[in-house]
Amino acid sequence: MKRKASILAPGWWDYTTLDDNILSEAARLSEYDILALTRPGFNVVFYQTLEDFYLAEALEYIHAWKQATPERPAGICGPIGPTEQLPLVARLVNELELDLSNAHFWGMDEWVINGKEVDENHPLSFKKADMELCFNRIRPELRMPPQNLHFPKAEPSEFIDSWNRTRCVVMQGGQGEIKHWAFNDPVKREGVYKDRPPSPEEYHQLSARVVDLHPSTITQNARTSGGGVVTGVPTQAVSVGPVQTWKAEKVSIWHAGMHDNPFGMRLTTLMISKQIVDSSVPMSLLAQHPNVQFNFFRPAIGTCAIEMH
Question: Average pLDDT of 160-181?
Answer without folding.
Answer: 96
